Amino acid sequence: MKVHYGIDNFTPLKRATVTSGTFDGVHYGHQQILAHLRKIAREDNSETVLITFWPHPRFVLQPEIANKSLKLLTNLDEKIALLEQEGINHLIVIEFNKEFSHLTSMEFVKNILIDKINTTKLVIGYDHRFGRNREGGFDYLKEHQAEFGFEVEEITKQEIENAAVSSTAIRAALIEEGNLFTAEKYLGYHYSLEGIVVNGNKIGRKIGFPTANIQLKDSFKLLPHQGVYAVHLYFEGVKYKGMLNIGNRPTVTEGIKKTVEVNIFDFNKDIYGAEVRLEFVKRIRSEMKFDGVEMLIEQLHLDRESAITALSI
Length: 313
Known about the structure:
Blueprint: E1 2-5, E2 16-20, H1 28-44, E3 47-54, H2 57-61, H3 63-69, H4 76-85, E4 90-95, H5 98-101, H6 105-114, E5 119-125, H7 138-148, E6 151-155, H8 157-163, H9 167-177, H10 180-187, E7 192-198, H11 203-206, E8 212-216, E9 227-235, E10 238-247, H12 250-253, E11 259-264, E12 275-285, H13 293-312
Parallel strand pairs: 1-4, 2-3, 2-5, 3-4, 5-6
Antiparallel strand pairs: 7-8, 7-12, 8-11, 9-10, 9-12, 10-11
Helix pairs in contact: 9-10
């Protein structure tokens, strides 16, 4: 897959089958759309092109609301890596800013789809909107396709709903319940996040469960619901097993801000300042307040056994 940052860095193709969207998470529903895109491209003897936008449009159009409430499943690098697995020929990453948001639907079609890409087939979801104030859609495109010089195909509502998947549904499963089973089923892979190992107060070390405190690399990245999780931690290309806690540590430091800390099994390296990736495999339990540190330690031993079992499957 060739990645093109900005439409001006793209050379028009002889034939192009195109789709566009934010594709946050590149989940099962997205994967179905992209499979359909590849099928049409094979029949049309054309190359596949996916147009995506960064940052997410809502951070530009509704910054006050989005900065408080919108959490994403993937950052740009993660999205690119996932799309590469889908066998797309070209990915065009367009910077979504105020200027771009003012493009009319006609300007988007003419300036980008026709002049810059040479689109011969356009595939869009049944509810996909584009252009200033979301004025363009399937009916508009279908009505003018002869004028535009490309064919338009719609992914129907039934096809989308049969997949029963949306980025919103996945976010809700992770945020409201920490429901990794549903999230993984919808995503088709383990949810993950990246972060930097930072100094903590070393309470875990004092009770026999030293932890690496993680500061999220991206503030907009979705953090699953509070609780204890079995995870894989990736550091310098090596995968390690561990258990992770998201929460306020009510037994030892109640009232402090939410932390993300992982106890890495059979690991004794100094990784302060290192960048790591965490892959969520199974939710073990909710965060709890225990009647004393001894009961907490007893539970942590049980959690470790549960995590080892989950990570060995």
